[in-house]
């Protein structure tokens, strides 16, 4: 592989100084331009209304020279690789540990209510009922069943513990980092793979997604697993990797509709393998894809009407809606991604063209398909290509010599991204009003009550159906919830074209209408749209005679939708202790 000549000692010091300077100046520039960040969840404009920018900059001032020193340790200074071989397992371990501070994040995206209801239906009724009633009794919207099924299995095994699902997603995130290292090594060399795995930690936005009850992290993992296994199946043959690839392809097909198109990323893998032996490559590809079809076709056929309606909904509703729900590329690749990572990924285009490297197309095609041909401008829909972007950036960095410069840049990208995620995004997410549901659910578990009745007071101009607070509260408490609508809420004008349309169409399952017999103690949870709300007479009657036990009123002020929670019940000294 061609390399540029190594710079002299003075040039190397100047390059280190440039990297350190960019690491300090770029965040300051982005902070001044934060009004350009139109991300719908972790916009810098909102984040720094809560987070202290000077505290973060002080942290960056401390980390910048530390990264420089670590990159130039005598032990590593003349080493060609990014990490020693024995440190390879540090990659998934580090990725897993990076997710742990976010476990206390509330469910800040309302889609989690839909996935939780699907998963809870599985844990209550079992797999046969779940697969039979998917899209019928179970409201499926445009979802596919695999990841809610896995979540339901975890809920059943761990007594509806959200933590089990969060740790599962953190594990998938960690394994994705390992797969990046494997794919980079298989395509080029070990250092490119390790650098790609490290750069994967340079997407601050990803840490806001790993603790949530969504399907994007799982889809990302299964897609990358399919690409790695397919490449190894075509190059190495055997039976293990074809079987693994078939399972991974089936998992992608049952995870998310938007990932179906990204499976076309397997085509460049096949084309590269045909250069060596066309007949052998085609036979091995058939050995992979035929078992995958055998796995998915029966379930697709059984649910053909449901899936046909879902695809129609995607085409008629979500495809036109994406134009109105978009986020700019500047937001996604400058604010929510470290800009040095983005720069390295762009430079990789030049490097691949100079070297005429066809293997580069394996990574490039899904990125071009999603961002250029399909013009997807929603960051959550771009998550599956983030591992490929990290590997593209690592490929571009191979021209940066000597290795100490690469290590310096890699360490700086990772350290500053983790600093932003944990020091900026995390406090902001924990300040959102959805945290009130989290804290109220935990508080209910401390009360000696057998039943919790939930009453929702709708806002004057609702952005979404306020009933969605019921499953989101249920996610954080082990107490059985009962919901009976006292006030009907009509969808606002424009609800049929809103990204929150599903909230108005989702029926709450029957288990929220079941009243346990012989209830000794009960609590009432009042979910409000704001602090100063006049209660209707029927709700006043409900809480008459009950004592206000606690109130949860956190609010970042960034969003129109607000959720405040009040918990009512008998005086604590009147509660009858429940038998263990």
Automatic annotation (TrEMBL):
A GO biological-process term: lipopolysaccharide biosynthetic process
Main localization of the protein described in the UniProt heading: membrane
Recorded GO CC terms: plasma membrane
Record GO terms (molecular function): pentosyltransferase activity
Membrane topology label: Multi-pass membrane protein
The Glycosyltransferase RgtA/B/C/D-like domain, residue ranges: 145-301
Transmembrane segments: 14-33, 53-71, 83-103, 138-158, 165-184, 204-226, 233-251, 257-274, 286-303, 323-346, 358-374, 380-397, 409-429
UniProt entry tagged with the keyword Ion transport: no
Compartmental location: Cell membrane
Keywords: Cell membrane, Glycosyltransferase, Membrane, Transferase, Transmembrane, Transmembrane helix
Pfam families per UniProt: PMT_2 (PF13231)
Alphabetized InterPro entries for the sequence: LipidA_mod_glycosyltrf_83, RgtA/B/C-like
PANTHER family: MANNOSYLTRANSFERASE YKCB-RELATED, MEMBRANE PROTEIN
Protein name per UniProt: Glycosyltransferase RgtA/B/C/D-like domain-containing protein
Organism, scientific name: Desulfurivibrio alkaliphilus
